[in-house]
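Q: Joint fold for the lines below.
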Amino acid sequence: MTEADPPTMTPVPPAAPPSHRHLFLGMLQVALSAFGGGLSAWSQRIVVEQKRWMTNEQFLTGLTVARLFPGPNQINMAVYIGAEFRGLSGALVALAGMLLVPFTLLMGLGLLYFSVHELPAIDRVLAGVVAAAAGMALSMGFKILDQYWKDPMALLLALVVFLALSFTHLRLIPVVLISAPLAMAWYWPRHPQ
Amino acid sequence: MAPFALLAAAACHHARLSDLATLAQVIGEFLSLSLFSLGGGNTLLAEYHHLSVNVFCWLTDSQFADLYALAEAAPGPSSMIVGLLGLGAGWPDGPALALLSGYGAELAILLPSTLVMVLACLRWRQMEHSPWRIAFERGLGPITLGILFSVGLKIVRTADVTRAGALSVPGVIVSVVVCVLMLRTRISPLWFMAIAGGLGALGIINR
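A: Joint structure:
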C-alpha cells in the first residue's frame, strides 16, 4: 500500500514489511511494555522508532482512523497496523498479540474475584475502590468538554443526548441512530474543497 | 428508586448461557453494540450495565461496579471489561465454562468493529476527504460527549450506593474528588483506588 505514497521526509528508511509472526510478537511487546499504562506511547515507540515499520506520519494517520471508527482506540490501532501490512489476517494476528496476555491476566483476576468477593474484608475494600473508579468514569466527559466549549450547537446536542440516556428509558443504539444523522446534517461541510 | 430496584431484583433470574436461545440473544446484543462503541469504547459502559444487571441478571449493581474497577486497574485496555461480564455470566456453570464465555464475549464485542476498521484502513485514501467522513467526525463528537456524561452519572449511581439502595454520601464525595484530581493532576489513578480501598477497609466508605 505504501508505494503510492509521495516520498516522505523521514531520515531513516522504513524496514521491510513485517510478517504475521513479527506482527504478533511486535504487538505482544507493546502490550508487555505498556503494563502500567501509556499503551499508545509505547505502541508509537516500538512500531515507529524501534522496528521502523511505519513513519511517524503513517502512525498518526492510523491514530486518526482508530479514533474515528467504532472500537477501543488502542485495539483499533493494532488492527490498523496489522491490516496495513497483511490485510485482514494481519489485523487479527496483531489484535491477538495485543490482547492475549493482558486479557488472560484479567480473566485470572476475574476468576479470583468471583471466588473471594463475598468475603467481608474484600467487600469492604472494594466498596472504597469502586468510589475511586466511579470518579474516573465521571471525569471522561469533562476531559473532552473543552474542545466543544465555543460551539453552542455541540453543547445542545450533547445535553439532549445526555438527558435522553440518563432520564428516559431510551437505550444507546436508538439514541445514536436518531441523533447521528441530525448532527451529521448540521456539521456537513458547507464549502467543499 | 429503592423499592423499584428491589422489585426488579425479585423478578430477575440469571440468564444461563447453556440455553441456546439465550446464548444467541447475548451474542447478538454484543455484536450489534460493537458498532456503536464511539469515542474509544467507554461509551458502552451504561449499555453493559443494562444488559448484565437489568436484562440478563448475571451481576448485582455492586458486582458490576467491582468489575469496572478491576478492568480499570488491570493493565491493558479497560474495554476488556466485557470479558469479565462474560465470566460473570458463565460463573454458575463452573470456572471452565465461565472462561469460555469470557473469551467469547470479548470476541463478540471486538469482531464487528475490527472488520469495519480493516475496511476503513483499506479504503482510507478514498474516504479521507469525503464530506461524509468530515460530517461523521464532527457530528459524532458532541454525541460522544453527551454519552460520556451519562455513562459517568450511571457508574456513580451504580458504585456509590448502599445495599439498601440509598446513595452513599462518603462514596460520592470520594468520586467527585477523584474526578477533579483526574482532570487537574497527572497522578496515576491506581493511587486513588489504593487510597479509597484503604478508606473502605477502615469503614469510612461502605455499602
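Q: Anything notable?
A: The CA atoms of residues 16 and 134 of chain B lie 43 Å apart. The two ends of chain B are 16 Å apart (CA to CA).
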